[in-house]
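Regression report. Comparing outputs from two consecutive submissions.

Submission 1:
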Amino acid sequence: MALQMTLKQQRACTRASSRQPFRAAAPAVRPRRCAVRVQATAAPNDLNNGLGFQTMRDGVKVAANETLLTPRFYTTDFAEMEELFSKEINPNLDMDELNACLQEFRNDYNKCHFVRNETFKTAADKVTGATRKIFIEFLERSCTAEFSGFLLYKELARRLKTSSPEVAEMFLLMSRDEARHAGFLNKALSDFNLALDLGFLTKNRTYTYFKPKFIIYATFLSEKIGYWRYITIYRHLQRNPDNQLYPLFEYFENWCQDENRHGDFLAACLKARPELLNTWEAKLWSKFFCLSVYVTMYLNDHQRTAFYEALGLTTRQFNQHVIIETNKSTERLFPVVPDVEDPAFFQLLNEMVDVNSKLVALDADTNTPAFLKVLMKLPLQERLASQLIRILFCKEKHCGSVDVAGSAAAQQLAF
């Protein structure tokens, strides 16, 4: 989705873009545009031969198979979501913090940030072999996740326009940010001579249904963990510029601030409806969604260790840092979070990685008959299921926002 701009705004963006990393001198006859289209195309190239990617047509990649660990598209009960934020139904809805978030979104700090230059394609052509394959997979997963957010937020904006226009505008502006991210990533894929047909994905991807409150819990965590992933990679590469294989990562510092602002808005949504934070059900769901997001990321990233090693990162250290920092951010809001700094927590996660790695290896084994694979998987699946149950009962921390009556933080403040 391209952002429509006036000529004056385009010129302002062109001036601002001169301060961007890896920025080459702009052509004298054509000003740069701030926006990047969500749809991208690319030409075939021998660099991708033998990497195992299938194409729908020249330069357009067949999307990766959907699994439990791949980014998903979401839908919800939009009528119920309208009720959550309707001013007519909830005349005492606290809009102060929500309106402060709205002003932040209107400022559009990254309007001129996503400006490409010639170094992208040059850098991509230097990434070859196995490293090229994992870069393409990273870009596809990231693009799919951002595009999923765009679709959900845009539909929420459309459905809430009448019942809660301020909240609708905030979802619309978040969809604007996610569209920029998805477009920037899909254009990066085209540097590697592939791209996703996002229109095709919209129509053919499986949509997962979540209740409205679950959507808010999950997207809040997704935005906050996205912030810590991006800023951690950015800071690491600033300290280790020799591992900066592709200029995309130079954009992560400003980019992750979009994720942080989105998370702050979703936190304000939860605080505007305190029953989502101060009941016994809220405590159960808070811990459950934290664990779901942390476990999914941990297992997913350990399947792709080669990507983090290519950037000079240690996968286990990176994941544990991101989870600990995300949990610190989350405990300022959620009534209960897992105690991720308890040594037993990551010990159990590491055991799950070992079991999951064996399952992945079995799936990749082409020499073992299918029926035998099923039998060999059973004890591993049973062990993984038992570990998931154990982690649900891991040590927890009672916390929460001081703005929410009944939270552990508010009760401590009373003394």
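Submission 2:
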Amino acid sequence: MNLPVGFFRRELLKFHHLSTNMMSFLHISKRAQSTVAEVLTRFNLDISKQLVSPSAIPYIKSQEPITFTSNEAKRQRRRLLSRPGLVAVKRGMTCYFDNQGRRLPATILEIVQNEVVYNKTIEKNGVYAVQVGAGYKKPQNVTRPELGHFRNAKVSPKAYLCDFQVAKEGDLVPVGTELKADHFKVGQLVDCISVTKGKGTQGVMKRWGFSGGNASHGASKSHRSAGSTGQNTSPARVFPGKKMAGRMGNVTNTIFNLEVLDANAEDGYLLVKGCVSGSKGSFIEVRDALKKFGKHLINESKY
């Protein structure tokens, strides 16, 4: 007889309340009588004896459901990598000639003192993440809490800190580990995350690529204007998200699937194919290509 455990529990609780008042067993359904008797026999329970507590009835302990907005649910929905990335400094662009003589555009990324400063865990922070610091900062320009943070990791004060989330606890890197340019292999793909150049307040032609107004006769000082932006009587308003003049740039941008052309651990630089957002001297977060993860990485145990 394949019945759920919850049905057994309900009927046994019902029998427990009846037996406390010395009532008959006939009030339980005929189907339940045989079921309860079978369960009592299976667990060596005597019907003539009164059940001491409902906790004596066997049941399956249910787990607390994971809500959609919880940190664990958010972490499970993300596509996470199995190792952290590096923090580089953009030094400019150059050309690169491969073995076939092709001329390729390349961006020079300098790897400066990359060290693991802290490891975040589910119990403390709700995620598994490796905090990587790069560069150097004078101690007199660092606050006392930050100095204590670096002292606990036994590393020098860093100019830039960032977190790289990883899939599981086993992917965390020991604190104090130095990461070099050979963290990435030549030929693999990487993603570069950086802040774009700030352009300030710009018009619609530069910000959104509008063609502008009529440049012939009849147009008076309205060549670069946006034109009409509102509606008629209905709905008599401008919809949210309308492309208009405003601040341009200074936003986080990710360029995906850039090929590593060269990686030199001794000189501390990476050469990636193509362009990377940001100005010269800005910090760039370099990680394994998220969209191509698992298809191009070389399976080598680094740590």
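Expected: both submissions complete independently.
Actual: both completed, but the second showed a warning that disappeared on reload.
Relevant detail on submission 2: The longest helix spans residues 5-20.
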